[in-house]
Amino acid sequence: MFDEKVKVGIIGCGNISQAYFKGALKLEVLDVIACADLNMEAAKAKAEEYHCEAQTVEEILANSEVQLIINLTIPAVHAEVSLAALNAGKHVHCEKPLSVELEDAKEVLDLAQEKGLLVGCAPDTFMGAGNQTCRKLIDDGWLGEVIGGTAFMMSRGPENWHPNPAFFYQLGGGPMFDLGPYYITALVNLLGPVKGLFASTSKAFEERVVTGKVNFGKRLAVEVPTHYTSSLEFHSGANINLCISFDVLAHSHKPIELYGTEGSLQVPDPNTFGGPVYLWKASNKEWVEQSLSHPYVENSRSIGAADMAYAILSEGKHKHRANGLLAYHALEVMHAFEKSSKLGEYVQIDSLPEQPDALPLGLLEGRLI
Q1: What is the CATH number assigned to the segment(s) 6-125+300-322?
Q2: What's the topology of domain 128-289?
Q3: Can you give the pLDDT at residue 163?
Q4: Which of 47, 93, 238, 299 is most buried as measured by Cβ atoms within 10 A of its Cβ?
């Protein structure tokens, strides 16, 4: 199997594509042969840099050599492009979220099943060294039974640094749809799926003012909530308090902490691949940094697509971890925040994906099996 490669086409050559192109070079099972973008100059620049062919979107979908499409378009058209790729007979791995609306995500999954094709979706950062080390510590019983925890992603928003921050405050944006997938997916990897939640949402400002160098002083209408707080109940029995916000100037919380009957764990930022990881045991009476048990410490975007490539080559015997069912579950959880807040009640999550398999120990860099 290691002698085979899956031929990949990338649609969308914007900022995030650089990490995917670079990541794919490190992963032995991927061979990026073509890229496309509505801006042909952007596609040509990436094609020249990474030695592949620049094509139109229509051409890349019609390319019989391309087996897997990596969809890096904007969230508003994720479903549209993924459906086009599936209808062209391609497997598809999408940047997060799977779609903006749940109905569109379900249409993608249903079409893939009908055609016998695979769907995957970011984030795949939970496959990195940091989160996998935490998964091993939990699976090996170092925490005992995980009963609770906290998760925080809080900032004042991207308008002080992002060159085009308007979309962060429009439908499909906000802190939940931008960064929520990292936190929810990381927690599902560690604890299994979410059963339901109570949540409250709000927004501190009706307008935001750009303070970065580009578009300085421009006023942005805020169309979505910018502060989300919740209590997530997991099927495992754990309850996690989660807050995701663009309304906070400063805080001192760790990204994720988990509390078990035998120990506590500090989980690194789920928007990264590495550590550090800290464990507190009664015998130590202090936080002790843990050695990372797995590879992929550096930015390894495309790792989820590579995992899918092994599933393609093994004809389904290998189960890819960053799969469509997991992404749909994360999307349903994200939508449930606003639903719970509007109704003022607990919202049950209907989807029930399998907890992703932990990565094995002893992996060589560039391989996943």
Answers
A1: 3.40.50.720
A2: Dihydrodipicolinate Reductase; domain 2 (3.30.360)
A3: 81
A4: 93
